[in-house]
Design goal:
Elements (H helix, E strand, L loop, with lengths): L8 E4 L3 H12 L4 E4 L13 E3 L3 H6 L10 E9 L5 E12 L2 H14 L3 E3 L3 E7 L2 E6 L4 E4 L1 E4 L6 H5 L11 E9 L6 E7 L2 E7 L5 E8 H4 L5 H7 L5 H9 L1 E2 L5 E4 L9 E2 L2 E3 L14 H20 L5 H31 L1 H13 L3 H9 L12
Parallel strand pairs: 1-2, 1-10, 2-6, 4-12, 10-18
Antiparallel strand pairs: 3-5, 4-5, 7-8, 8-9, 11-14, 11-15, 11-16, 12-13, 13-14, 17-18
Helix pairs in contact: 1-3, 1-8, 8-9
Bound molecules: flavin-adenine dinucleotide.
Length: 381
């Protein structure tokens, strides 16, 4: 077993939350080790629409998605299972960029800022005498003062830690593919179908990203993805048009299952959890990536205060928990409620037809699931 010395912070997981916190901390001369089990770059199942809420912060870290070709998105279309259309304007707007590109940009930035990267799988973390020990499957033991848990929505570590949400079966699966065809650059569409919804928007390569989430019970009645798309998604005429008028860019779609929206804890065994590891908002709200980035920013600020000995470990944990709840609790509740409305075909049809008659409500509902665009503190620059 090897031990690496002088690490202030170990970040477990190199998704948006992990990479963002690693860059933020390294920019402030913190010795950071990021452990990620997979290689970069790679595609991930995601709607790839990000709210502008985090754009100034990303820019302050030296990442500018717009200059990398991300599509600026201002409009939203929602269609019901019966193909009724509601058109709206996104209050804050957002941008479309593939995870292949965004995660790679952040990964390169992290390396540039001096973050050490280890491509291994963490399989245990312990905390004794104010010090963490992180163990990898490959046999390393590494110690640090702080650990950030940014290992996504479902990981071997959740099982190891016996987290509550992992004990419940989750009935959702998701599919994502890039396709070629015509679609407005400035639009994100949410097309509902029986048992789920499909997000459609463009990314920096001009590809259209199709990403849908469905209940497993609806999917399992069909032989495969193709049949499910034909028999269920295509009942919505907007989705039928998209499937018929576009051609696939992936050899086969990516899929994931066991997506859970159960409540999680942002602190576990003195570890600060960021992104989906702390809590996941329903993808329908298009805010998970912003929450991952924003939580990483919040954790990093508190960790810097701790490392500069301005606050104790107890205060670090208390402050992070308080700020996390203040920032995200309402969004998560609103997200759960909206997802519940959409789950029932009759109620969702009724609520959407009400929304069609009162379109000024749409931006208000969107605001409930999103944060505000924040000015970036001078500490970031
Ligand atoms: C179907 C779907 C559509 C979505 N659409 C949108 C959208 O349009 N807009 C939006 O804002 N959000 C969307 N989201 C949410 C968004 O994808 C997530 O909130 C975001 O990816 C969270 O980032 P993260 O860094 O927390 O996790 P991730 O990006 O999942 O990163 C976690 C990382 O940890 C690594 N890891 C896990 N375990 C270990 C281990 N033991 N050791 C080492 N590494 C490990 C993984 O390999 C992974 O790279 C969607 C989610 C889903 C499921």
């Amino acid at each position: 077993m090897k031990t690496q010395k002088d690490i202030d912070v170990i970040v477990i997981g190199g998704g948006l939350a992990g990479l963002t916190s690693a860059i933020h901390l390294a920019k402030h001369h913190t010795q950071v080790l990021l452990i990620e089990k997979n290689t970069f770059p790679r595609h991930k199942v995601c709607g790839e629409y990000i709210s502008n809420e985090v754009l100034p912060y990303l820019r302050s870290l030296g990442i500018d998605p717009i200059s990398e070709g991300a599509k600026e998105i201002r409009k939203i279309n929602i269609t019901t299972t019966k193909s009724h259309l509601i058109e709206g304007i996104l209050p804050l707007g957002g941008f479309g960029i593939s995870r292949y590109k965004l995660d790679e940009l952040l990964f390169q930035k992290a390396k540039e800022e001096g973050v050490q990267i280890l491509q291994e799988t963490v399989d245990n973390i312990t905390f004794h005498n104010d010090l963490f020990s992180v163990f990898t499957k490959e046999g390393k033991e590494i110690q640090s003062k702080i650990v950030i848990g940014a290992f996504g929505k479902r990981s071997n570590l959740d099982v190891k830690m016996n987290r509550k949400f992992i004990q419940k079966k989750s009935p959702y699966l998701a599919v994502k593919a890039h396709v070629k065809g015509d679609f407005p650059d400035d639009l994100v569409a949410l097309h509902n179908f029986k048992g789920g919804y499909c997000g459609v928007s463009k990314v920096e390569t001009d590809a259209i990203n199709l990403c849908y989430i469905s209940s497993f019970s609806s999917f399992k009645k069909h032989k495969n993805i193709d049949e499910f798309q034909k028999e269920v998604l295509s009942k919505n005429s907007y989705l039928k048009d998209i499937f018929e008028s576009t051609s696939p860019l992936f050899e086969k779609p990516l899929s994931i299952s066991q997506i859970s929206f159960e409540t999680k804890s942002p602190i576990e065994n003195h570890m600060l959890m960021c992104g989906d590891t702390a809590g996941m908002i329903h993808p329908l709200c298009g805010n998970g990536m912003s929450m991952a980035i924003r939580s990483a920013e919040m954790a990093s600020e508190e960790i810097l205060n701790y490392l500069e000995q301005k606050i104790s470990r107890k205060e670090l944990e208390k402050n992070y928990l308080r700020n996390w709840n203040k920032e995200f609790k309402t969004r998560l509740r609103a997200g759960h409620f909206i997802a519940w409305l959409f789950r029932n075909e009759f109620i969702s049809e009724l609520s959407l037809s009400f929304l069609k008659r009162a379109p000024s409500l749409l931006p208000k509902i969107i605001r409930l699931t999103h944060g505000k665009q924040k000015y970036v503190s001078s500490r970031h620059l």
